[in-house]
Amino acid sequence: MGRDTIVSAAARRVRWRERIFGLARPLLPDGNARWNGGALIVLYHRVVAAHKPVRDPFAVTASAFDEQVAWLASHFDVMTVHDLVARIERRDATGLAAITFDDGYDCTIERALPVLKRYGVPATVFLDTARLNSGGSALRDADVRTLAESGIEIGSHTVTHPNLVEVDDVALTRELRLSRERLTALTGQPIDGFAHPFGRYDARVSQAVKDAGYEYACTCRQHRTNEPADDPYQLTRVEINDSDDQSRFLAKVRGRYAALYSAWYRINPATRAWLNN
After folding, report:
1. What is the pLDDT of residues 90-146, one digit of tens each?
2. What span, in angstroms and rounded, lies between the C-alpha atoms of 73 and 120?
3. Overall pTM > 0.70
4. Among the residues of 103-255, which ranges form H helices?
5. Considering the chain, what is the average pLDDT of its residues?
6. CA distance 174 to 17
7. Rounded to whole angstroms, how far apart are CA atoms 179 and 67?
8. How confident is the model at residue 28 (pLDDT cuts 50, 70, 90)?
9. Does residue 33 or residue 164 have the better pLDDT?
10. In angstroms, how far is the first alpha carbon of the chain from the final one?
11. What is the pLDDT of residues 200-248, one digit of tens each?
12. Rounded distance between C-alpha atoms, residue 226 and residue 243, angstroms
């Protein structure tokens, strides 16, 4: 199955999930004490022009992103994921947040970076290196250097963005090693972080990430925040989508959907194990 097919299938799943969750929101209770005791990581993919109709569940408008970052900056100590993990390891997780981007679209530098600078907060960008310099909406090498020089943490998202659970050991090692080597050479900085493509991972993949020299890995689990005793190779992130107005954004980052995500994962055998961590 090709990458475009997998992405399209993922978009359909997300679109339906967000629609169902939106309908259920009035029935959800306010407040989540355990959620507030952990560190929050927010996941974005694309930021589109404010006037552009959004039909991609993995995109948010520039105006929505501005409003969301403003709120995060005023309510959390926002930092890179690398710094957030270091703070969590010191058993200091309350009031911390990180903003992340996956894939490596040029909107990260064109639309996201000016907003981040305006509010004085950093972010972490995870790149699949085969996308770089490929034209269209992809970042270029020079863009990655600019991001790194601007205080943005650069992390790996593999070379070709496969579902790592489905590749063999040789391909898994190559995806992890070559992407890290490329980004290290490109930025001149250590590449400590990794994000799983499609959020898919298992024990074999997690061990390979450790063996490749990464210090942490981000998933797409959304049912809890990150606590001091948690495995840094299974960090959770709250995904922000095109349907998230400010009210729904706040419900997400405050943990109002946590129970729904837990139930969602329990239904799917492929994600049921996520609830045990």
Report:
1. 998 899 999 999 999 999 999 999 999 999 999 999 999 999 999 999 999 999 999
2. 8
3. yes
4. 107, 113-119, 141-149, 169-187, 203-211, 246-253
5. 91
6. 33
7. 33
8. confident
9. 164
10. 29
11. 999 999 999 999 999 999 999 999 999 999 999 999 999 999 889 999 9
12. 25
What is the maximum span of the chain, computed from C-alpha positions, in angstroms? 50
Alpha-carbon distance of 130 to 39, in angstroms, equals: 31
- Structure-token pair, residue 133: 């310099």
Do residues 158 and 128 touch, judged by C-beta distance below 8 A? yes
How many Cα atoms occupy the beta-carbon half-sphere of 26 within 13 Å?
Answer: 1
Q: Contact, 99 vs 44, CB < 8 A?
A: yes
DSSP 245-258: -HHHHHHHHTTTTH
What six digits make up the tokens of 42? 């927010």
Relative to beta strand 59-61, strand 193-195 is: unpaired
For residue 43, what are the contacts with CB-CB under 8 A and spacing of at least 6? 100, 101, 102, 218, 220, 237, 238, 239, 240
Q: Please classify residue 81 by burial: count the beta carbons closer than 10 Å to its beta carbon, then call 0-12 exposed, 13-18 middle and 19+ buried.
A: buried
Which two three-digit tokens encode residue 241?
A: 């989508």
**What is the amino acid identity at position 20?**
I
Q: How far apart are CA 100 and CA 111, in angstroms?
A: 14
Phi and psi dihedrals of 241, rounded to 5?
Answer: -120, 175
Q: How many CA atoms lie within 13 A of 30 on its CB side?
A: 2
Residue carrying the six token digits 């090498």: 141
| Euclidean distance between CA atoms 80 and 97, whole angstroms | 8
Closest CA to 194 of 234, 146, 221: 234
Percentage of the chain surpassing pLDDT 90? 73
